[in-house]
Prior knowledge:
- About 40% of the residues lie in helices and about 15% in strands.
- By secondary structure, the protein is of the alpha/beta class.
- Strand 2 and strand 3 (about 15-20) form a beta hairpin.
- It starts with a strand and ends with a helix.
Amino acid sequence: MKFLIVTFAPTLKKEDKFYSYAPYVYEMNIWSKYIEELGIISPIVYEDKLLLSSFDKEPQIFPIKPISFVSIPAIFISLFRIPLLLIQLFKAMQWAEHIHLRCPGNVGLLGCFVQILFPKKPKTVKYAGNWDPTSKQPRSYRFQKWILSNTFLTRNCKVLVYGDWPNQSENIVPFFTASYSEEEIEEVQIRDISIVKKQIAMSRTFRNDESIEEGQMLNRVQHDDSNRHSQLDWESHDLENDQQIATLHTPRNDKSVEGEQMLNRVLHDGIQRHSALDAESVTNKLKFIYVGGLTPGKQPLLSVQVVHELKRKGYNVQLDMYGDGVEKAKITDYILDNSLEGIIILHGNTSKEIVKKAYQQAHFSLFISKSEGWPKVVAEAMFWGCVPLTSAVSCVPEMLGNGSRGTIVVANSHEIVSVIEGYVKNNEMYKIHAQNAMEWSRQFTLEKFEEEIGRLF
């Protein structure tokens, strides 16, 4: 079977192998197990840094020019390119025996139009965004959803969406995604939150000669950092649905590199100091984790503010943040302004194994995003008995069992702190939610995902 992927994610060739955005490649490698020939129509250049992985099956590439509508010049260029792009999509779909669209996105939108001309060819669509019919979304997203749901325009098609929504057409198939295999399942002890105690509010001062010098260094780094924020080349972009993900660009000059290294050294020293606290303090620590892009849509600063408020109320807390993005500079400023080094720890992008260990040690996952499809980081936290505190977007209320596997929160730090204190006062409820979360999430393994993919053909 000739299987064609229609996507905005760039396909890049390096040393006779083809690469693309890693999470997307991991998934498509599973799909590839059920096909003979793989074709991809996508852009073939990408100037920014990207987390890459290689395709298991060598694809036939149908290259296209990228299109974008983020600026007036980009709009004019894209409008000029669209006619040729439609012709290229048509020719690629003629080649295919099965058409697979990755939506929502600009290329996916054009693919939605062209697929109408192939009513007899089997099709699948991975809709990675929010399918909630009541949610506010861009017009282009709503239009894609309308075309894909319409059984007259989109025939012989299965549209994979996150969540089980009422009053959907026969095209729509509730689906999920997975991060861990059955082999990775291991026994995890549910954390005991009853040992968390408020600490006596007191100022911990480290003002010897070395710390005074460090304080001066912090001030200098903060001043330099504020001057270079506009120069840092931070940007994140979700290549599949025009949302943002964590990618880190290299600073543009030696001065910014030096400042970044100095800042990292100071923050690391702060971590080392705090790790030397007595064993009881460490045992009683209330631990949080944030995993995801440091981008405005995911509101990472709100998670920082929640932990800061808990600290002010006397709790011994720690927030480990995994990911990078445009909000990192703002979060760094907040850490330095409020002396939160060693309490808010920025780890950047790191390995899956390190993040897994962090999930296993954390009490709560904080993820108050404005828009999601199936937030994998929520399901991952649940997999390891880490109770999620997250926003009511997409299918998240369904994932949390309407409050039996975690808590839906609004974007208000005071209310989130109140929810956390409610758990601290009710250890039994915390343990039940953690256990329920773990049992539910462990249904959705990579083996289960592969099995369900096979049933689509």
